[in-house]
Design a protein that fits this description.
The complex is a heterodimer. By secondary structure, chain A is an alpha+beta fold. Chain A is built from 4 helices and 6 strands; from the N terminus they run ααββαββαββ. A 6-stranded mixed sheet of chain A has the order 2-1-6-5-4-3. In chain A, strand 5 and strand 6 form a beta hairpin. Chain A starts with 5 loop residues before the first helix and ends in a 13-residue tail after the last strand. Chain B is an alpha+beta fold. Chain B has 2 domains: 103 residues, Rieske Iron-sulfur Protein, CATH 2.102.10; 218 residues, Naphthalene 1,2-dioxygenase Alpha Subunit, Chain A, domain 1 (Alpha-Beta Complex), CATH 3.90.380.10. Chain B is built from 11 helices and 19 strands. Chain B starts with 7 loop residues before the first helix and ends in an 8-residue tail after the last helix. Classes of the chains: A alpha+beta, B alpha+beta. At the A-B interface, strand 2 and helix 3 of A face strand 12, helix 9 and helix 10 of B.
């Protein structure tokens, strides 16, 4: 394990945690500000033991991610709040490329609002998904930027699914 | 076609009490003055007795697609699945390359035999030999033809129980219509082709020209009666639910001219159309297609009692609903491309697929959300009494003829009138 100086490590950690906070708050614009528009790619993947294949359940570049955020209010969605909790497992930093690969544990909770019967269910929180964030992050003199995020899910049953990304 | 007159008792002021601007309780409960074919009692979605009858009279007698041949490409590959009525199924490709399906229950003490969702029988299990399905409980073994090949210490049965009489319950199985594996619990059923009839003819070129391959599998237990979710497949009046469809389809000329065709056995076909994907900023354009399908072409067939084939230009979706109870449905959804796809083509098909469908796609979430919420409103005692399926537009896209034809078939098999099911 290579030593990473705090002035490099802290912005990387902050980026991962802030990305969750912004998504939790549905501050999509702030989330996108953490991403590198040229290189950003967001994917949700899993391995399906049912078909014995790796699957991709979402695949968006920066433009598509922004378009999906912009379109959210136009679609009928389960507007239950999603809370993403992460713990960073590993940070591997390439000093030459000034890029870091970060692996974090991801847990997503869902607090019901209007996806079932709001009179009965709103306010209930349940575990919705578990998996990993696998991030590629570039570090510049000014900031750390998210180049790629793979949400590698262990959970493969998401009942009615979600318009909101993890 | 003559329109059905609006009854005065619905249109008239509901009460002498000027504060009551809606309908009174009595008016609300009145059955709409429509032919029985145009209205459904909500009881058919909520009554456990009717559900049990459906399992027996419908689900145990129809052909159902349970997996795809590409899920078990090699000899001794297996796939576990299930059918309504809590019936566990195992599908196995034999060493003779033939695909067979069995009830996944050991005839000895009724344990599940194969537990993994998929795999190959050559892989040794802790309690059993390779090449066989082995019940971990007492080590009884079955080959890929369902024959019992091993009973440990069988001599203690003194000949009263023997391998020859202890095979698995085999199910009628056929592979077809794009390589789907179909099973039927009814040993006396007719061939699959008789059941499907001409319903899949319009997309046979897409399904049969070359082998397909699965790239997407999604399942989820949705809190809904299977018929309520399936209703959303049977009519496109509900395109109002989908912003994506409003943008890409409803605004196109010709959209309202699409026609439905209803077929025997309760199946239905939606007329061919093309979709303008570029008008929805997130789903882009479609570059790939299926054999014989024009670019941006769309074909759609629903099969009674709860499966559907849906080709959106570059990808095929096949979904099947397996009811777990009157209020819970296991929804299984598969996405397919062509087996010969290059990695780049496959990646593009997957991108196209997940933009509309899949757990993070725009449309599927809306359909499931709607069915789930509707189920909340249609609970016993909730006050929901009638579902109206009375739109008539010469079988065009917002006609509800396919919902009516579905319930006509339901009535035929159940021997009950869905408008008056008691």
């Amino acid at each position: 394990m290579t030593y990473i100086p705090p002035e490099i490590l802290q912005p990387i950690q902050q980026l991962v945690y802030r990305s969750c906070l912004f998504m939790n708050d549905e501050s999509w614009k702030d989330y996108l500000a953490l991403c590198d528009p040229q290189s950003f790619r967001y994917r949700v993947t899993n391995y399906s033991p049912e078909i014995r294949k790796d699957q991709v359940w979402a695949d968006r570049d920066f433009k598509a991610m922004k378009a999906s955020f912009d379109l959210l209010p136009r679609h009928n969605s389960d507007r239950s709040k999603l809370t993403r909790q992460v713990s960073i497992y590993t940070v591997d930093y390439d000093d030459g490329a000034r890029e870091a690969n970060v692996v974090s544990a991801l847990t997503v909770y869902r607090t019901q609002l209007d996806g079932v019967n709001s009179y009965i269910d709103s306010g209930q929180t349940s575990l919705y998904a578990v998996g990993l964030y696998k991030d590629r992050i570039k570090v510049t003199d000014d900031a750390a930027k998210l180049m790629e995020r793979v949400v590698q899910l262990d959970t493969r049953q998401l009942d009615i699914g979600s318009h909101k990304p993890f | 076609m003559a329109s059905i007159p609006v009854p005065d008792r619905v249109a008239a002021p509901p009460s002498k009490d000027s504060d009551v601007t809606g309908r009174t309780g009595k008016q609300w409960l009145l059955k709409p003055e429509l032919p029985d074919s145009h209205v459904v009692s909500t009881r058919i979605y909520t009554d456990p007795e009717i559900f049990q009858e459906e399992v027996e009279k419908i689900w145990s007698r129809v052909w159902l697609p349970v997996c795809h041949e590409s899920e078990l490409p090699e000899p001794l590959d297996f796939r576990t699945t299930g059918l309504a009525g809590n019936k566990p199924i195992v599908v196995v490709r034999g060493e003779d390359n033939r695909i067979r399906a069995f009830l996944n229950i050991c005839p000895h003490r009724s344990n599940l035999i194969v537990r993994s969702p998929a795999g190959n029988l050559r892989k040794p299990e802790p309690s059993g030999n390779a090449n066989h399905m082995t019940c971990m409980y007492h080590g009884w073994q079955f080959n890929a033809k369902g024959q019992c090949v091993e009973i440990p210490r069988a001599q203690s049965y003194q000949g009263r129980v023997c391998k020859e009489a202890s095979g698995l319950r085999q199910l009628r199985t056929e592979v077809g219509y794009g390589g789907m594996v179909w099973v039927n619990l009814d040993d006396g059923c007719g061939p699959l082709a008789d059941f499907i009839g001409p319903a899949l003819d319009p997309m046979l070129e897409q399904l049969e020209t070359e082998p397909l391959e699965i790239f997407h599998y999604q399942k989820g237990i949705v809190r809904t009666n299977y018929k309520l979710f399936f209703d959303t497949s049977r009519e496109f009046y509900h395109d109002y639910l989908h912003f994506h469809n409003r943008q890409t389809s409803m605004v196109k000329s010709g959209y309202f001219e699409q026609k439905y065709t209803t077929h025997p056995n309760g199946h239905s076909v939606t007329g061919f159309t093309t979709v303008d994907y570029s008008s929805h900023s997130d789903t882009g354009t479609r570059l790939l297609t299926f054999p014989g399908l024009p670019r941006n072409g769309w074909r759609h067939t629903t099969l009674f009692p709860a499966s559907a084939y849906n080709i959106r230009t570059s990808c095929l979706r096949v979904n099947v609903m397996i009811p777990l109870s009157d209020r819970e449905t296991l929804v299984e959804i598969r996405g397919f491309g062509l087996k010969r796809d290059t990695p780049g083509e496959r990646e593009q098909r997957v991108k196209d697929y997940v933009s509309v469908w899949g757990p993070f796609g725009w449309n599927l979430h809306e359909d499931l959300l709607c069915a789930q919420v509707q189920t909340q409103a249609i609970q016993q005692g909730s006050g929901a009494e009638w579902n109206v399926i009375a739109r008539e537009e010469e079988n065009k896209v917002h006609d509800e003829v396919c919902v009516r034809s579905y319930y006509a078939e339901w009535a035929r098999l159940m021997g009950r009138n869905p408008a008056e099911p008691r």
